[in-house]
Design a protein that fits this description.
Rossmann fold, alpha+beta, ATP-binding, ATP hydrolysis activity, binds adenosine-5'-triphosphate
Length: 360
């Protein structure tokens, strides 16, 4: 049974349509991430689940209970929704110890005494902060404060955990670590989680499924692998991971192969897809790590190989980013081995690595 069902939810403010007819089901225990650029409506969606914002139309059900139904005039107040929410600016109460911060959250829900103490001990244990119960927030590192904030979100056993960019104020190294234990924590507790981020690395690492949003629309829902390997549109391809996105004309269509033309008579092979006609302009994408430079394998299809001049070579630690031009398109390739700019060499664009998008 789905734990969260959002049906035809829209949000309008004045003349501005912020969410367009969103529908989404989240399974019990699932970790789902709303991913998209700033202003695409992620927080508005999360706030609608939390009851902090009232949508203009649609219906939200959690665990079979209707929390919002515009047509039926139902809107359950946040405090009656039984959800744990943590924002980017998770402030712990500075004048209370860790223990008191959690106790206060329970107290609001009239959970006190031995039951409260047991829940607090359990929540602090979950985030590995049980030894710090007597400390004040000011005596903890940023990462520790953040774990306490998560414990505070979890302490009363919410049905859903709603997290809005909870890792964004940690430095890069701590964020990687925090990401790992957040995933682990969610697996251990099994609490259905909706996570908001504009960071695609975080989304790929954490999620069971990712919901990609663009301008108030859901544009793709899928596992991290599906989103990464089969982006539904050039927007998704561009937003998730790096991609070379280019425009080309469809020159020929064979059973399994499309031949795409670039300026200067360059021909690129791609897998055939439906909905594309010969003569049409299409968008296509290939990931930098799929391009093979300096290809000499005699078994490769020569039609996939092009002589190119290396325009630029940038060292980025574990890999080199190498730029070259084909027709009027500049491509970037990535590989571990350095190659000096200015050389002419072979670039192989494997047919299967090219992703063609049917015109919208
Ligand atoms: N109260 C409001 N009045 C007018 N416009 C609003 C209001 N709240 C949100 N918006 C607009 O709605 C759109 C979606 O906002 P939302 O905060 O949901 O985006 P987001 O994807 O969470 O962005 P970010 O990653 O920057 O937090 C934005 O264009 C925003 O400016």
């Amino acid at each position: 049974m789905a734990d969260i069902v959002i049906e035809n939810m829209s949000r309008t403010i004045g003349a501005l349509k912020i969410l367009h007819d969103l529908s989404l089901s989240v399974a019990e225990g699932e970790f789902i991430t709303l991913l998209g650029p700033s202003g695409c409506g992620k927080s508005t969606t999360l706030n609608a689940l939390a009851g902090l914002d009232r949508p203009s139309a649609g219906r939200i059900t959690v665990g079979g209970r209707v929390l919002y139904d515009e047509d039926a005039g139902i809107f359950v107040e946040p405090r009656f929704r039984d959800l744990g929410m943590m924002f980017q600016s998770y402030a712990l109460w500075p004048h209370m110890t860790v223990q008191q911060n959690l106790a206060f959250t329970l107290d609001i829900r009239r959970i006190t005494g031995a039951v409260a103490r047991e829940k607090i001990a359990h929540a602090l244990d979950l985030v590995d902060m049980d030894r710090y119960a007597g400390r004040y927030p000011g005596e903890l590192s940023g990462g520790q404060q953040q774990r306490v904030a998560l414990a505070r979100t979890l302490v009363y056993g919410p049905r859903l955990m709603l997290l809005d960019e909870p890792l964004s104020n940690l430095d890069a190294k701590l964020r990687d670590k925090a990401r790992d234990w957040l995933r682990d924590l969610q697996r251990r507790t099994g609490v259905t989680t909706v996570y908001v981020t504009h960071d695609q690395t975080e989304a790929l690492a954490l999620s069971d499924r990712i919901v990609v949003m663009e301008a108030g629309h859901i544009v793709q829902v899928g596992t991290p692998e599906q989103i990464y390997q089969q982006p539904a549109s050039p927007f998704v391809a561009d937003f998730v991971g790096s991609n070379n996105i280019f425009e080309a004309r469809v020159l020929r269509r064979q059973e399994r192969t499309l031949t795409l033309g670039l300026a200067g008579g360059i021909e690129i092979l791609a897998p055939a897809i439906d909905g594309v006609e010969v003569g049409e302009l299409v968008k296509a994408a290939i990931r930098p790590e799929e391009i093979v430079l300096g290809e000499t394998n005699p078994e490769s299809d020569p039609a996939e190989i092009h002589a190119v001049e290396l325009l630029d070579s940038v060292y980025q630690g574990a890999r080199h980013v190498l730029a070259f031009r084909l027709g009027d398109v500049e491509f970037q390739a990535e590989q571990a081995k350095a190659i000096a700019a200015g050389q002419t060499l072979h670039a192989r664009l494997p047919r299967e690595a090219i992703h063609v998008f049917a015109p919208a």
